[in-house]
Amino acid sequence: MFVSVLVAVVLLLSTSMSTVAAQDAPSVEFNKAYGGGGFDGATSVIEASDGGFAIAGYTDSFGAGQNDVWLIKTDSNGNVEFNKTYGGADDDVAWSIVETSDGGFALAGRTESFGAGSLDAWLIKTDSKGNVEFNKTYGGGYDDAASSVVETSDGGFAIAGRTNPSGAGQNDAWLIRADSNGNVEFIKTFGGYASDGAESVVQTSDGGFAIAGFTESSGSGARDAWLVKTDSKGNVEFNKTYGGKDFDYVNSLAETSDGFALAGNTKSFGGSDEGVWLIKTDSNGNVQFNKTYGDANEDVALSLVETSDRGFALGAITESSDTENLDALLIKTDSKGNVELNETYGGKGSAYVNSLLETSGGFAIAGRTAPFGAGQEDAWLLKLSGNESGNGGGEGQGLPGFTVVTALLAILTAAVVAAKRRTE
Q: How many other C-beta atoms lie within 10 A of the C-beta of residue 85?
């Protein structure tokens, strides 16, 4: 009898723990599209200090040129407070945005309208209303571009991207350190004989920098994911490649309390043609785990954040098996990369996610969508709520996790005592 009761309670405990660990899909708080009659898109989103959102991207519906850099500032409900375009007669795009310590914004991307070459990296600094305080181009006579920007601890900027110093068709990864006025303090290139590039940069807790992207010059495959760690002057402390024999790369990087997390896609691992890929390393770039997510469709992670419960959230795109359109994909994992939540968002058209952030009690996703809005493609902001990290699920889950475990342990104790008394 004692054994039967013990087995039953253990099974109940296991089942209940599994139920508690599952998370309900977050609910849609709002779903907004921004644009005109042309092709418009959001590439990066941040939560501003006033609780609203700032979105960077591009527009060919408004502005002066083919594509112009686009800044949209919204309130906490996604309603536009202002929008500004920046650019010239040619193609100009922003890929990254940060809110600066003075309450303004900095946007980084590329410009064909200004600068020394056919394509230059571009940094635009604005006040809190989007008015330009300065803009700087960086590059030579060929193709250069910025993919990511952060404000540094001294109020300057670190910019990562790619540069083609020779015009010979091969790129190097690029790290630019600028002061608070955008003036260059140093520029470092990293790479070899083939094509290499940086997609994401962070300033690390030791005052140095880490950049992540891809390399075709080293590693084990046609293209490998790449992590480069430098000191505060841009001198390499280590560089690591990750991948197999096929095409693998990362698009997003986060520093964690004990190392780094990188997200992108892989063709070398997993069961799909192209799968979402999460790599977790220690502080020296050594792999602690790597996980792939996806099915037979092509899935790619574009954005990664470490969540407040020390898990991870990945913003990705996935090909719909029904329509072959692209859907936005949100994957939430625990600290070991085990999936807690896997949800897609889209409609009859395509929904493409470029940027993801964790908000208080949920997530915000930015990208582009068609034909949900007014034009061919519109910039898109999706706010999700009702699923705070680590809460074990949304409303209607029943008892909180700790209470369930405590109750079941009490049942187990009572069962043991009762069984023991029967045998005495």
A: 18
State pTM to two decimals.
0.86
104, two tokens? 């303004």
What is the DSSP pairing of strand 287-293 with strand 40-47?
Answer: unpaired
User: DSSP string covering 289-307, please?
Assistant: EEEEE--SSBEEEEEEEE-
Give the whole-angstrom CA distance, residue 78 versus residue 30.
7
DSSP states along 233-269:
TS-EEEEEEE--SSBEEEEEEEEETTEEEEEEEESSS
Contact partners, residue 13, CB within 8 Å, separation at least 6: 405, 408, 409, 412
Q: 141: which residues sit within 8 A by CB, 6+ positions away? A: 116, 117, 118, 167
Q: Which mean pLDDT values do the consecutive 10-residue runs of the chain (424 residues) have? A: 40 39 79 94 97 97 92 98 96 98 98 92 98 96 95 98 78 97 97 94 98 93 95 98 94 97 92 85 98 83 97 91 80 98 84 94 93 78 74 32 38 44 46
Give the C-alpha distances (Å, rounded to integers) separating 223 from 185, 190, 241, 396.
Answer: 31, 15, 10, 46
Antiparallel, parallel or unpaired: β 248-256 and 68-74: unpaired
| 361-396 burial code (b ≥16 CB/10 A, e <16) | ebbbbbbbbbebbebbbbbbbbbbbbbbbebbbeee
Strands (E), 168-258: 172-178, 184-190, 196-203, 209-215, 224-230, 236-242, 248-256
